[in-house]
What does this fold into?
Amino acid sequence: MLSERRASELEAWQILLEDRGYRIDSPGAWHQALLSAAENMLRSGVVDEAGWLELKDRANAAYERAIEEAVEEKVADPKE
It folds into this structure.
């Protein structure tokens, strides 16, 4: 049961990570949602501390990339 729940929650987290629209529209909220979901998985025992740290690191790296992309787009087209 836990393995099915774990797979389901990790899949949902991955879908959130890949949500381009959310990332572009609101990178801060998107990042916070990823971190919150990872924290909830830790609290509920779906992931251990190592798994939580991995998710947190992936979320932080993705957020950094999202901000870099936003800056690059703004520099490329400052009218928007």
